[in-house]
């Protein structure tokens, strides 16, 4: 192992869980998320020494998002590792009904819609920031985010009333 | 806070909880996974890094009509006259990925031929050994209860018994698309050198050999070629489409895919890919490109070697549609050089080499695309990433 590779290993050891969770959200699958992390790290390796140490994780996450976004353009280079259609108990520590439903709905979204939805509604990036990150037009982000959100609401049978009711329950400290 | 804002906040909180619930393993385990994947890539051998293993197995398998790990148990068999479609559950991302190579030829080409199960197993055994290397094991097929047809995608019951190292595909199954009679011996191989793109008979032969399908009465709609690459779209008399993309980079002396080479350098070139499908599939999978719909992306898989500037080998064939008929598309690369993508009846093929650049892995490059209609009218202009 070279010094750079040791640096990468140390970074991975420190940030693995966070990165895999990010990969899981981008892909809808834990194994595919792990693959995404590995692929992003390998692609970052040549540039590692030039990266600002404080910005390494942001850079890796950027590469992960772009790889996930481009997965359809390289359909033969991107695949889940295990072929599992459903998560095992090891994938999801807490398998509450809400999380199972959300995970299923997230995974069912088209890849690009899922990426945009995760960046917009989970990472809280603006449409302009996402467009810059993914290298696409803002209008593309807007339309994909809108479609993803609508699909998710439909799949989860959400209404505004439901959301507010659930929110109230959460605020009271009850189970969501 | 408006109801919509409130709901977005709710969604964010739920996504947070979902992410937090993922059991990701320890950091040390992750670091070890990374070190192993790095060693494997460095040793230039196939690894168990599942992304690479599965993806390359898919590439090789797809091209050779072998499809690992598609969960299609229980999926209905196709009706007569309808193409078989795998991954119908729609829930498995891998199935979605595989769908592009899982729409083989038998019924779609309108020349359905029934074969016995024993014959199907014999042909699939030949193809399997052709693709993954010889062994003493014979393919056993499963999960088909009805008649067996050429072109049907069938699942291998004993895939894990095969010694098809160097791949560790212990988590995957194998699939076979039953090749046409007498063509199984050459499935997954290409006779080199590749034919010139304007050699229609040669294009039909090369594409058909790799797929195990007789294209002799198919029309080569459009084709493009470079020194060692060929892209073409073929059309059957009854309207089905074959997309054919061949690259000698990945082939060994036999004209078969050199798996070690592909694993060692997954971005070094293209693994051959030939499929038979319906025109509608391209429409279904198209991406918006301004006012135009294309499948695949007009960037045509020019290889991603960012950061910096690089020579990008492109290889792709597909479909483009829009408000006006398209005569040709021109890629202007970062040196100002123009590369023409021929378009015929909306079908396109490109096998050129362009100079591209980007500032980070996965970032869009800097290609400029101009879409021309009749009389060289410019219909649209786009930059890569639009």
Structure description:
The complex is a heterodimer of chains A (176) and B (386). Chain A has helices at 3-27, 30-44, 56-69, 97-108, 111-122, 127-134, 138-155, 160-171. Chain A is mainly α and 176 residues long. In chain A, helix 6 packs across helix 7 (138-155). The longest helix of chain A is centred in the first third of the chain and has 25 residues, at 3-27. Chain A is globular. Mean pLDDT of chain A is 73; it is low at 72-94 and 160-176. With 386 residues, chain B is of the alpha+beta class. Chain B is 25% helix and 24% strand. Chain B contains eight helices and 19 strands. The model of chain B is unreliable at 42-110 and 164-172 (pLDDT under 50). Chains A and B meet through helix 1, helix 2, helix 3, helix 4 and helix 5 of A and helix 1, helix 2, helix 3 and helix 4 of B.
Write a brief structural summary.
The complex is a heterodimer of chains A (176) and B (386). Chain A has helices at 3-27, 30-44, 56-69, 97-108, 111-122, 127-134, 138-155, 160-171.
Pick out its properties.
heterodimer; A: mainly alpha; 0% strand; disordered C terminus; B: 386 residues; alpha+beta; 8-stranded antiparallel beta sheet; 8 helices; 24% strand; globular
């Amino acid at each position: 192992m070279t010094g750079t590779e040791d640096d990468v290993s140390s970074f991975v050891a420190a940030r693995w869980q966070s990165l895999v969770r990010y990969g899981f959200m981008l892909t809808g699958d834990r194994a595919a998320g792990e693959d995404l992390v590995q692929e992003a790290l390998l692609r970052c390796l040549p540039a590692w020494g030039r990266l600002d140490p404080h910005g390494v994780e942001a850079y890796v996450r950027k590469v992960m998002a772009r790889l996930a976004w481009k997965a359809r353009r390289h359909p033969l280079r991107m695949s889940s590792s295990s072929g599992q259609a459903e998560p095992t108990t090891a994938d999801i520590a807490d398998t509450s009904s809400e999380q199972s439903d959300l995970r299923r709905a997230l995974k069912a979204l088209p890849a690009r819609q899922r990426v945009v939805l995760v960046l917009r509604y989970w990472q809280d990036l603006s449409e302009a920031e996402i467009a810059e990150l993914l290298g696409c037009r803002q209008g593309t982000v807007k339309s994909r985010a809108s479609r993803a959100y609508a699909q998710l609401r439909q799949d989860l049978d959400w209404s505004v009333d439901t959301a507010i009711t659930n929110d109230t329950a959460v605020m009271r400290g009850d189970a969501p | 806070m408006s109801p919509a804002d409130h709901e977005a906040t709710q969604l964010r909180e739920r996504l947070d909880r979902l992410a937090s619930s993922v059991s990701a393993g320890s950091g040390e385990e992750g670091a070890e996974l990374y070190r192993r994947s790095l060693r494997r890539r460095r040793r230039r051998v196939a690894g168990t890094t599942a992304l690479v293993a599965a993806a390359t197995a898919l590439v090789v398998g797809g091209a050779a009509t072998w499809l690992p790990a598609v969960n299609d148990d229980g999926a209905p068999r196709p009706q007569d006259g309808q193409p078989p479609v795998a991954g119908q559950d729609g829930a498995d991302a891998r199935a979605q990925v595989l769908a592009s190579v899982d729409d083989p030829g038998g019924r779609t080409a309108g020349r359905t031929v029934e074969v016995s199960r024993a014959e199907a197993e014999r042909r699939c055994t030949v193809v399997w050994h052709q693709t993954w290397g010889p062994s003493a094991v014979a393919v056993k097929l499963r999960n088909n209860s009805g008649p067996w047809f050429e072109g049907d995608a069938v699942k291998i019951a004993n895939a894990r018994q095969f010694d098809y190292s160097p791949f560790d595909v212990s988590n995957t199954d194998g699939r076979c698309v039953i090749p046409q009679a007498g063509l199984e011996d050459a499935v997954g191989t290409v006779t080199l050198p590749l034919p010139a793109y304007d050699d229609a008979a040669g294009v039909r032969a090369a594409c058909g050999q790799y797929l195990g399908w007789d294209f002799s009465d198919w029309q080569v709609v459009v084709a493009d070629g470079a020194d060692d690459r060929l892209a073409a779209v073929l059309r059957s008399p009854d309207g089905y489409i074959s997309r054919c993309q061949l690259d000698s980079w990945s082939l060994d002396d036999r004209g078969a895919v050199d798996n070690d080479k592909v694993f060692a350098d997954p971005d070094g070139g293209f693994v051959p890919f030939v499929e038979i499908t319906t025109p509608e599939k391209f429409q279904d999978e198209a991406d918006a490109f301004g006012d135009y719909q294309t499948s695949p992306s007009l960037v045509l898989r020019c290889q991603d070697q960012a950061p910096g500037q690089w020579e990008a080998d492109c290889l792709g064939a597909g479909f483009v549609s829009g408000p006006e008929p398209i005569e040709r598309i021109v890629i202007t690369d970062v040196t100002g050089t123009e590369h023409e993508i021929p378009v015929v009846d909306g079908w396109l093929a490109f096998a050129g080499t362009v100079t591209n650049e980007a500032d980070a892995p996965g970032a869009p490059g800097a290609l400029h695309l101009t879409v021309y209609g009749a009389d060289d009218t410019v219909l649209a202009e786009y930059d890569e990433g639009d």
